[in-house]
From TrEMBL:
InterPro entries (alphabetical): FAD-dep_OxRdtase (IPR006076), FAD/NAD-bd_sf (IPR036188)
SUPFAM superfamilies given in the database record: FAD/NAD(P)-binding domain
TM region(s), chain numbering: none
Extent of the signal sequence: none
Pfam families from the UniProt entry: DAO
Taxonomy, superkingdom: Bacteria
Gene3D superfamilies: D-Amino Acid Oxidase, subunit A, domain 2, FAD/NAD(P)-binding domain
Stretches assigned to the FAD dependent oxidoreductase domain: 31-384
Protein name: Glycine/D-amino acid oxidase-like deaminating enzyme
Length: 399
């Protein structure tokens, strides 16, 4: 299945990897990672840092799946309000999930600094706008519960929002601990570092079609009839995990994104903060380091790639109109646009760890709008699981 369509900005901006390998022999490794997107790259990073021999396979060219379609906004907030998440998974686990997302942003920043990756990472402020009267009430409730648990949050009323950001909405939640990144450069940077320094090997165009558990190892079979023998397998293929799992753990959605032509400095809002809203479906807004605006949203349930792609122009018009309601005087013009498919869980949380029907495998399934932050959490947890460290897992399949 095509994960995306159109012209993803990150791929155009950075270009494809200069070289890649395909598997044409039987091999062995300690840990086999399925998926070379940002999740697989981060899993490889944490394991390689511990001296674990890793190998990555991907049915596509490395890093060219959903990673290239991501808007790469890094927020500790998830698509489900904290007060709603508490109803779903309990207060302790809900708050822990938010705290782990917050911690993951600084963890990612440290990784980028340590590996000296040029990934256009920036700490940013974030605005969560009330779209209507219900949104105001929800944000008031959300503010109180976040404040209770000492999560970074400030409530802005209509006057404050208009004065500071020139946005005419009734209310917003504000924080200054979010971030943005070039997700494709980040993924490529991590992979290239560990290819050079840790012996990591990445095989593109290598499709795993069968996995067998043997007595002392697990064996993956490729479409080209080669085998990969490993102690453990990490499945990080995004929503294509449905090809491995029998149970349905997510709903597929399509999201639509465009990037503007470059603008002048004076055409941007204060702080160039990340923006999203309480409306469902919502739009999300960020900027790029070459003075563009990236706007996406109007997600809808995925049915098939052809229908998803036919809707691109209509969705672009809706997204642009919604953006211009926020900034009526904006001179924004669309330059690139694309759409992508992603998974979403009922509680908005990822699935991480082992599954009862798949021994010797770990899953790193960071669904939803927090794919990158969830990926950081998953990678670190799987590293601990593999090393036999005691791990409290609030993202297990049996939660």
């Amino acid at each position: 299945m095509n994960l995306k369509s159109g012209l993803p900005f990150w791929l155009i901006k950075n270009g494809l990897a200069s070289e890649y390998k395909t598997l044409d022999e039987n091999i062995e490794t300690e840990v086999l990672i399925i998926g070379s997107g940002i999740t697989g790259a981060l899993v490889a990073h944490f394991l390689c840092e511990e001296g674990v021999k890793c190998l990555i396979v991907d049915k596509r060219m490395e890093s060219t799946g959903s990673t290239t379609a991501s808007s790469a906004q890094l927020q500790y907030e998830i698509d489900v309000f904290l007060f709603d998440l508490i109803e779903k998974v309990g207060e302790e686990n809900a708050v822990k999930a938010y705290e782990l997302c917050l911690e993951s942003i600084s963890t990612l920043q440290k990784i980028i600094k340590k590996l000296k990756i040029e990934a256009d990472f920036e700490i940013k402020s974030s605005l969560y706008l009330a779209s209507d009267a219900k949104g105001v009430k929800d944000l008031e409730k959300e503010y109180e519960i976040r404040k209770k648990h000492k999560l970074p949050v400030t409530f802005l009323n209509q006057k404050q929002l208009k004065s500071k950001f020139n946005i005419n909405k009734k209310a917003a939640l504000y924080n200054d601990v979010s971030a943005q990144v070039d997700t494709y450069k980040l993924c490529q940077g991590i992979l290239n570092h560990h290819k050079k320094h840790s012996g990591l090997v990445v095989y593109s165009h290598t499709d795993i079609i069968k996995i067998e558990n043997k007595k002392d190892f697990i064996e993956a079979h490729t479409e080209k009839k080669n085998t990969i023998k490993a102690k453990r397998i990490v499945a990080a293929p995004g929503f294509e995990s449905e090809n491995i799992l029998d149970e349905k753990v997510m709903q597929l959605n399509s999201t639509y994104v465009f990037v503007s032509k470059p603008l002048k400095d004076e055409d941007f809002w204060n702080e160039r903060c990340l923006i999203w809203e309480t409306a469902r479906p919502y739009i999300y807004v960020r900027t790029t380091n070459d003075n563009r605006i990236m706007v996406g949203g109007f997600d809808e349930p995925f049915q098939d790639p052809k229908r998803r792609d036919r809707l691109m122009e209509k969705k672009n018009d809706l997204i642009l109109k919604r953006f211009k309601k926020l900034f009526p005087e904006s001179k924004i013009e669309v330059d690139f646009y694309w759409c992508g498919t992603f998974g979403e869980t009922k509680d908005g949380l990822p699935f991480i760890g082992e599954h009862k029907d798949h021994p010797n495998m770990y899953f790193a399934l960071g669904y939803g709008g927090n794919g990158i932050t969830f990926s950081v959490i998953a990678a670190e947890m799987i590293k601990d699981m593999y090393l036999g460290k005691k791990t409290e897992n609030i993202f297990s399949f049996d939660r």
